[in-house]
Amino acid sequence: MKKILDAHRRVVENALLLVLFSAVLLVLTGLTAGGNTVANTETVAFSFLLVVLFSAFFGNLFVSVVVSLVATLCFDYFYLPPFGTLNVNSFPDWISLFSFLIVAVLISHLTASATRTKTANNRLEATMNQLNTLGHWLISKKNDELSLTLIAQEITRVFSFPYCSIHVYSLGKWDHHLGAAATELSDQVELAIQQVDQPLGWTDLLVETDLGVRYVSIQKGTETFAVMAVKDSVTTTESLKALAYLIGIRLSTT
Predict the structure, then answer these.
(1) What is residue 84's three-state secondary structure?
(2) Beta-sheet strand order (sheet of 173-178)
(3) Beta carbons of 99 and 54 less than 8 angstroms apart
């Protein structure tokens, strides 16, 4: 549900940004076009490109591309002869128009790409800090103080996962170690894992189910020791594998 709400929120935010930056273009056009022109064509083009740049920075690629198209239409309609039409009479004006469009779209793509890269880097840095925090906690615990339930609880706390549990196969069944209070989701996850054959059948669970839960193996050396189940839409698969590897290293010393 949270994932759906976040997706809807992003759609609404991008729609509002699209309206906002399109309105900015229209205001700039109203200030500079017609008989009371206060800027030449070059200044207008530069101002429009700045609006496109900001739309790519604050919005996504779709928002900035649409704003680029709106800017191009305004530039053509109000600033290239014959004025007040979308027709372009001279070849140099065609070059100006297409050059403006290409530059606007390139700015959109590069800025949106840089924003995505920055977001990914920030997420990676946050994950590394979380792994470091968990690693220090694991090292600080003596063997007789450590349990799978405590590990699941600490993972839930450090990574702010909505759900985390660790499952170990013992005496013909999977033992369930939960990181938070039992919920309907924990019952569903436990039921799903109980139906998995040991030792390798758990790989059937690697793909996300309708529960939105991801499953990662925890190994002692080359042997699968346990399965960690987490519900999270942000952490990458590589980060979850690193988390499981960290737990496996610590458990191999117990």
Answers:
(1) coil
(2) 173-178, 163-170, 223-231, 213-220
(3) no
- Residue 113, SS3 per DSSP: helix
CATH 3.30.450.40 residue ranges of the chain are: 143-251
**Of the options 3.40.50.150, 3.50.50.60, 3.40.190.10, 3.30.450.40, the CATH number for the domain spanning 143-251:** 3.30.450.40
Q: What are phi and psi of 87, to 5 degrees?
A: -80, 150
Residue segments in the chain with a per-residue pLDDT below the cut of 50: 1-3, 38, 206-208
The per-residue pLDDT for range 172-205, each reduced to its tens digit, is 777 888 887 778 888 888 877 777 766 555 555 5
pLDDT in tens, 209-240: 556 788 888 887 777 778 898 988 788 888 99
